[in-house]
Design the sequence.
């Protein structure tokens, strides 16, 4: 048996001594740079180049979101923005006294935009004051919708209709409505509280084509289904109604008595039946009975009348 010290020296022999390293006094020789060549495809180089350009351009052009808006630039942009359709000043006032089922409901005061819609305001003023020979007195509201209530205006037959044709042409209202729509007036025009004259019926079906015998020859003729508004029906908007922009000329807004308009909107009405297949077929083929039935939809069960009306001096 070997002693432990000898076994340890046998297993871990000492390392040979290295000669001392003398540091050279002369300057070290220049280092040799070894260039590593990496292989890239043209596609990789193109993607890398485009990405770098985009990052450089984005950092130079895009402003940080945390930066505040320049007040001078904001004021300039606000001054260049088109005016809103709601920025109109009334030039005269009119009133409507309302009754529901024979009981007084209150008065509605309307401010009229004589400077923005002169033809429509002249038409409405003549009917409210009675200067046109006809008036809204004892005429009733014929339609109550969730967003507006509609007055029936002057009936489309009889003496009142003839007077309505002589006192003002509905074509002038359509022309004014088209001009206002063509102007730079963004957004909804029939806002809550607005008053407007119905100048056209967007739901009116196209003319019905039929063959007619004239002088022994068959000719193609067009039969009008329904009639255009005569320029006396008007609506009072209870909620913003962009769907009315396609048919209504805004002439003013309610200044007082909006609670009266809301009471009118709460009157029970005839339920719509436009989902019936019989009604759809009749409407599709241009049956006049469908047009007559459609007029009865949303009609109030209670009689809502204008008992008195006029201009406020």
Sequence:
């Amino acid at each position: 048996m070997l002693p432990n010290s000898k076994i340890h020296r046998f297993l871990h022999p000492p390392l040979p001594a290295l000669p001392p390293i003398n540091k050279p006094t002369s300057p070290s020789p220049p280092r040799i740079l070894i260039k590593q060549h990496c292989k890239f495809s043209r596609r990789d180089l193109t993607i890398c180049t485009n990405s770098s350009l985009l990052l450089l351009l984005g950092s130079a052009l895009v402003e940080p979101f945390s930066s505040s808006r320049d007040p001078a630039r904001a004021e300039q942009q606000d001054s260049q923005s088109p005016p809103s359709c709601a920025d109109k000043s009334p030039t005269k006032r009119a009133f409507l006294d309302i009754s529901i089922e024979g009981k007084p409901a209150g008065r509605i005061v309307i401010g009229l935009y004589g400077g923005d819609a002169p033809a429509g305001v002249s038409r409405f003023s003549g009917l409210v004051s009675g200067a046109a020979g006809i008036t809204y007195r004892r005429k009733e509201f014929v339609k109550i919708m969730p967003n507006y209530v509609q007055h029936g205006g002057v009936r489309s037959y009889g003496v009142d209709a003839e007077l309505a044709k002589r006192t003002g042409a509905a074509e002038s209202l359509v022309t004014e409505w088209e001009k206002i729509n063509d102007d730079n007036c963004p957004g909804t025009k029939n806002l809550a509280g607005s008053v407007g004259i119905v100048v056209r019926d967007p739901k009116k079906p196209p003319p019905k084509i039929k063959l007619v015998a004239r002088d022994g020859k068959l000719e193609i003729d067009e039969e009008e289904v329904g009639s255009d508004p005569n320029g006396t029906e008007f609506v009072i908007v209870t909620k913003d109604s962009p769907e009315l922009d396609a048919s209504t000329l805004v002439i003013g807004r309610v200044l007082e008595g909006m609670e009266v308009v809301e009471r009118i909107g709460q009157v029970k009405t005839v339920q719509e039946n436009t989902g019936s297949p019989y009604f759809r077929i009749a409407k599709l083929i241009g049956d006049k009975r469908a047009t007559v039935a459609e007029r009865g939809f949303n009609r109030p069960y209670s009689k809502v009348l204008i008992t008195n009306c006029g201009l406020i001096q």
